[in-house]
């Protein structure tokens, strides 16, 4: 069919991402590949992909969980593992307890009985507590930096607005114009009016 000129009709794709990370996320949100692109300069990307992210952590997407028992059980299992990781001395102990608890409560019981070794191995090889904690710290540090920058900008704007009002009230229009062009002069005026 490669020589035909007729357009080949394709089924409409639907891309879904299940989220079960530890950050607080809404039940559903749209993700766009273009959000990861650098320097778009308000130019539309030549490629776009959107995905619907569904939060499958315990307590989220109740309607979805009601219609898909297996997914709900997975959500319960993950929550159980997380809770035991907080209270047990090792990840191995936490995992063993979580699996036993879920089997006893008939949560993924058939799957966990049959694939216990694979589940244990998969979680132990993919879960790195030190890396997990390091990543959480780095994320928190980055969020703190961003918040600090935003707060700093807001404070600077407030100071400059206050300076503008003082200069307008004093009818010092030339100083206002000069301050708009010269940061050092701004600092001098801020000090003069006690705005710091």
Structure, explained:
With 196 residues, the protein is mainly alpha-helical. It has 7 helices and 3 strands. It has helices at residues 62-67, 69-87, 91-104, 109-126, 129-169, 173-181, 183-192; strands at residues 16-19, 28-32, 50-55. A 3-stranded mixed sheet has the order 1-3-2, with no helix packed on it. Helix 2 packs across helix 3.
How is the quaternary structure best described?
A: single chain
Percent helix among the residues?
A: 55-70%
Largest sheet: 3 strands, mixed
Order of strands, main sheet, comes to 1-3-2
Query: What class do helices, strands and sheet pairing give?
Result: mainly alpha
Indicate the mean pLDDT. Answer: 87
State the helix count. 7
- The gross shape turns out to be flat
Helix-strand topology string: EEEHHHHHHH
State the end-to-end distance.
73 Å
- Spans of at least 5 consecutive residues with low confidence: none
Short description:
The chain contains 7 helices and 3 strands. It has 196 residues and is mainly α.
Fold topology:
Blueprint: E1 16-19, E2 28-32, E3 50-55, H1 62-67, H2 69-87, H3 91-104, H4 109-126, H5 129-169, H6 173-181, H7 183-192
Helix pairs in contact: 2-3, 3-4, 6-7
Features:
3-stranded mixed beta sheet; mainly alpha; 196 residues; flat
